[in-house]
Design goal:
Largest sheet: 5 strands, mixed
CATH superfamily of the largest domain: Immunoglobulins
CATH class of the largest domain: Mainly Beta
Structural class: mainly beta
Shape: elongated
Number of helices: 1
Strand content: 35-45%
Helix content: 10-25%
Radius of gyration: 33 Å
Number of domains: 2
Order of helices and strands: EEEEEEEEEEEEEEEEEEEEH
CATH architecture of the largest domain: Sandwich
Distance between the termini: 119 Å
């Protein structure tokens, strides 16, 4: 099933048809974490902020982009994303949070969409690695973990920017890569992405039931392979010539000197 990310004006929200009002992000208490927030490309220059509240009208601003504190926000205008990072959240920090953009016009509301953070000492859903990387044309593997209470829930791997999801038990091929999900039926499922393209880079999430956890994927260009193949014949000849040219010149000089001395000795008159 594909969960579309609907644009309502500029305000982003997840379609009610998807069965989700907002992503429910699983967070481990006492540990660092990071999540992405997307925004419309028209808002690249606008100030970004992070706030907390059950409704937009009573949202308490916690941090602005490029400020330090409990939450650190970093804006990436080229990707239309800003990230929210923290070092230590407690279970009491659970609740609704908003990814938001400051409009600044008098009488115009700021724009945002909400996420729910479930903060647990042992999260019911997690990922072995929160960031993975691979080379173009290669493949990557991501292992997503879940508690025993979630073993019968639907397992999915979704791309955040368009909410396109791949479901365990199916093999789907998109324009970007082939995705396979295998569930061990106990405590984990593994995502295998093959034929990676540079455009596959971005944020994804493991989804189990009503819980999600973010994973960042970075795809790079292949490094130039260092080979020991034979050099072209003409190149080898050139290198040999450069190597032995001084020796040849010295030999020619010696031969010339010997010839000159020999000629002079033959021309020398016999002694009386």
């Amino acid at each position: 099933m594909i969960y579309p990310l609907i644009l309502s004006g500029i305000l982003l929200h997840i379609s009610d048809d998807a069965g989700l009002n907002a992503l429910n992000i699983a967070v481990k208490s006492g540990s660092p974490g990071i999540i992405p927030c997307v925004y419309d490309k028209q808002r690249k220059e606008n100030r970004k902020f992070w706030c907390q509240g059950y409704t937009w009208g009573i949202c308490d601003i916690l941090a602005y982009a490029n400020e330090t504190g409990k939450y650190s926000l970093t804006d990436y205008p080229a990707q239309n994303i800003f990230t929210v990072q923290w070092e230590n959240l407690q279970t009491s920090d659970y609740g609704y949070y908003w990814c938001a953009v400051e409009i600044g016009d008098h009488g115009t509301k700021d724009e945002g969409y909400h996420l729910y953070l479930t903060v647990q000492s042992a999260p019911d859903v997690s990922a072995v690695n929160s960031s993975v990387s691979g080379q173009e044309g290669g493949d990557i593997s991501v292992q997503c973990l879940y508690s025993s209470g979630y073993k019968n829930e639907v397992k999915q791997w979704c791309r955040y920017k368009d909410q396109s999801c791949y479901t365990a038990g199916r093999t789907d091929t998109s324009q970007t890569s082939s995705v396979q999900i295998s569930d061990d039926g106990r405590r984990s499922f593994t995502v295998l992405m093959t034929g990676l393209k540079l455009t596959d880079s971005g944020w994804y999430f493991c989804s189990v039931g009503n819980l999600q956890v973010f994973v960042q994927l970075t795809v790079t260009e292949p490094k130039q392979a260092i080979t020991t193949e034979s050099k072209p014949e003409t190149q080898m000849h050139d290198e040999i010539l450069v190597l032995f040219l001084p020796v040849v010149l010295v030999l020619l000089l010696l031969v010339t000197l010997v010839a000159i001395v020999t000629v002079r000795l033959r021309k020398k008159p016999d002694a009386l």
